[in-house]
Amino acid sequence: MAQPEMTPQAAAQGKLYMIPVPLAENALHTLPESVKALSCRLKFYFVENIRTARRYLKSIDRQVDIDAIRFVEVNNQTAPDLALLRQWLKAGYEVGMMSEAGCPGMADPGSVLAAAAQEMGALVVPQTGPSSVLLALMASGFNGQGFRFAGYLPVKDPLRGKAIKELEQLSAQHNETQIFIETPYRNNQLLQELLRLCKHSTKLCIAVDITGEQERISTQTIGAWTKAPPDLHKRPVIFLLMA
User: Fold this and answer.
1) 157: DSSP letter
2) DSSP E strand boundaries for 24-129
């Protein structure tokens, strides 16, 4: 495979670009043209999945020279190669960080790389793109000035039940929106726990397939959801709670 040309930038330090990608399939329209152009110009990448990243760049521009781009994976199974990142940035190269969907560093890999770049004084440049967390919050009708993203909740009880009750209490005490996610194949189990443990008056927003053809962002009370719970199995979902 051809190696990328190692021509340093004029600056002493390189740049780390946080590159967003679409949340849903066939949703390239959700990205600015400037981000698409930058994505295909970069020659050094940390990505969550190399195969997906290569296919995505080809979907933007079929003429992009994929073999001239160096990809390094960073995900749950592969720790980030911070020494390589520092090497690239010290040489003055422009480096991209790309997750599987949405914005890197937000419920996806990337924050460790950004921290390492910040520590060495390199520029970290976030690019504009869709964030499922922020889009769900915008549409929920919940407090957008006081909110907390809790990420993934514990998988098993009693820790999961305790976490749900704590989130509901925090929301009530601080008038704060609580945002969290789950692995798609466990969505229905989490929803059942929310309906069982939360007060009927507490509001729950379920944001499904954001920016996709089947997008549905709906806010109801727990009591209302209990009467007709949706099937969320294997669908990308953001949960928001407001007590």
Assistant:
1) T
2) 44-47, 70-73, 94-98, 123-126
Over the chain (243 residues), the average pLDDT of each successive run of 10 is 46 86 93 96 96 96 95 90 96 96 90 96 96 97 97 94 98 98 96 98 98 96 98 97 98
In this prediction, residue 5 carries a pLDDT of 52
Report the C-alpha gap between 41 and 163 in whole angstroms: 43
Given a contact cutoff of 8 angstroms between Cβ atoms, the answer to whether 241 and 222 are in contact is no
Residue ranges of the alpha helices (H) in 69-157? 82-90, 111-119, 132-140
What is the pLDDT, as a whole number, of residue 26?
86
Residue among 238, 16, 46, 243 nearest 127 (CA): 16
Q: Between helices 159-174 and 187-197, what is the axis angle to 10°? A: 60
pTM for the model:
0.89
Distance CA 71, CA 90 (A): 18
Element (H, E) at 161: helix 159-174
Residue 147 in tokens: 């909110």
Within its chain, how far is the Cα of 215 from the centroid? 17
d(CA 235, CA 243): 25
Check: CB of residue 186 under 8 Å from CB of residue 219. no
Phi and psi torsions of 64, nearest 5°: -65, 140
Adjacency order of strands within the sheet including 203-208: 147-152, 177-181, 237-242, 203-208, 216-221
CA 5/CA 158 separation, integer angstroms: 54
* C-alpha dist (Å) from residue 238 to 19, 53, 126, 159, 162: 21, 23, 22, 20, 20
